[in-house]
Amino acid sequence: MADTEKSTGHIERTLETRHLSMIALGGTIGTGLFIASGSAISTAGPGGALVAYGIMGIMVYFLMTSLGEMATYMPLTGSFSAYSTKFVDPALGFALGWNYWFNWAITIPVDVTTAGIVMNYWLPNVPGWVFSVVVMALIFLINYLSVRSYGETEFWLALIKVITVVVFLIVGVAIILGIMGGRPVGLSNFHYKQAPFVGGVPAIISVFLVAGFSFQGTELVGITAGEAATPEKSVSKAIHSTFWRILLFYIFAIFVIACILPYTDKNLLNQDVSNITMSPFTIVFKRAGLAFAASVMNAVILTAVISAANSGLYASTRMLYSQAREGYAWRIFGYVNRRGIPIYALLGTMVVSLAAFATQFVGPQAYNYLIGASGLCGFIAWLGIAISHYRFRRAFVKQGHSISELKYHATAFPFGPIFAFILCIIVICGQNIDAFVKMDWQNILITYMGIPLFLILFFYYKLRYKTHIIPLDKVDLSRRTKGESYEPEEK
Nearest 5°: phi and psi at 230? Predict the structure, then answer.
């Protein structure tokens, strides 16, 4: 009977500020930084890469503060999907929720497959799928035990990545100044040949895409807000600390790589985890005399992909749970067990992820289509955050509330969400311009498949239930959704 009662109650609020900070930060530090950052420098030059990552970092910060303002006022599991339902249109919440769940459910098998490739560096004779299945079982166990076990795991995995980047920055600066690795290199590579800007504005826009994928995962702090012990404090702290860490880790790391390696270095073109010896991080560590640089970076990248898969399972489980509580999915997925885990949402997500993982044995083309379909889902989620926050703030004022009532204020409203919305549209449209130029319809289909899938979900719900954009004076600002509520303690 306890379980039955629990199924209509709250999930556990046990995540601390340190968990949320590392979850938000850990979501941004992955193969995008350790491997793909080199291709950004090669494409747009050192100056172009810094401009692209800088602008994208500012956009992500605006999105984070938008999400933070809503999450501290109304910390709900499922966050931006629930906010879209309450502040914009139930059809948008329905489409965003299923879009985001699908994104992570499909990304999990991609990450565990990558883990198998990484493990083959040490054990080349063992089939990669064996390691992938082990990782899949591991992340399921972590998410099955408790939300705190997920938080602790992410904290320590993110800490490993953070320490690696800090050591890299120290070693890199030492090489630049000539303290390690021979003569000082200074800023000579910033005016080498066509540097610092190579390829002009089109090259910078193409790097936006790489930067955007690198920063995806920061919105996880909104998902975790529903299980934070003190969301008013921990969410705002996590957002502010994440901005400065993104600035430090991404911008400074790219600056260090660009100083040490010229943009013409062929090693910067590598984007394959199976060739870890060509990672910019590995090359810099080797130049400093670290003999086991490749093995060290391989181990770090392994922690990064396990962390990504772990976060993906958590996020997709909570989104499916939220969809069930909103009435957008079967009610059984809204069931919560004694440990505060939406167990059927977890099992349902695992089944879909395993099915997606199995498609690679049927044929690589099927697997590529699945990956392509999820490619734009993260940017669509960001669009949803920007739209929801713009509507939330306007409705809040329209209904006679004062901005001073909000415990956390988003930065530069309304510029922030409008800027984020426009940049996300540019990034989505610019995903694969070459395919349109060459009229490569198969490539176009794989790249942009996520857009028609989202629109089908949106218009299906809109036409079936005849929903409309909610008038600002009718927007529900009460701090509850169908399955859960939150009211902060009175001071």
Answer: -135, 75
Per the listing, tokens 């000579």 go with: 188
Give the pLDDT confidence of 13-64 residue by residue, as tens digits.
Answer: 778 878 877 776 776 777 778 887 888 899 899 999 999 999 998 998 899 8
Distance CA 204, CA 215 (A): 16
Look-up of token digits 């090359």: 283
Q: Which residues sit opposite 228 in a β-bridge?
A: 15
State pTM to two decimals.
0.88
pLDDT in tens, 423-459: 999 888 887 787 888 888 888 888 888 899 899 999 9
The residue ranges of DSSP E strands in 2-70, in sequence order, are: none
Using the structure block, give the residue that is written with the tokens 């430090």: 248
485: which strand partners?
A: 480
Tokens of 130: 């064996």
Q: Is the peptide bond before 414 cis (omega within 30 degrees of 0)?
A: yes
For helices 231-246 and 17-26, angle between their N-to-C axes, nearest 10 degrees: 40
CA 118 to CA 272: how far, in whole Å? 10
SS3 480: strand
DSSP state of 268: G
For the record, the structure tokens of 200 come out as 């002009």
Task: Say how far apart CA 249 and CA 159 lie, in whole Å.
Answer: 13
Q: Which residue has the tokens 């090489």?
A: 175
Q: Distance from CA of residue 278 to its chain's centroid? A: 25
DSSP string for 275-306: GGGGSHHHHHHHHTT-TTHHHHHHHHHHHHHH
CATH superfamily ID and name for 17-463: Amino acid/polyamine transporter I (1.20.1740.10)
Task: Measure the CA–CA gap between 45 and 54, rounded to whole angstroms.
Answer: 14
pLDDT level of residue 490 (50, 70, 90 thresholds): very low
Query: Side chain identity at 123, as an amino acid letter?
Result: L
Q: What is the largest CA-CA distance in the chain?
A: 73
Secondary structure in 3-state letters for 360-392: HHHCHHHHHHHHHHHCCHHHHHHHHHHHHHHHH
Q: Which two tokens stand for residue 62?
A: 């605006």
Kindly report the number of other CB atoms within 10 A of residue 291's CB atom: 9
Phi, psi of 90, deg, nearest 5: -55, -30
Q: Which two tokens stand for residue 27?
A: 């979501």
Q: Which positions ≥6 away from 40 have C-beta within 8 Å?
A: 49, 52, 53, 207, 210, 211, 254
Cα 6 from chain centre: 30
Q: Does residue 15 sit in helix, strand or coil?
A: strand
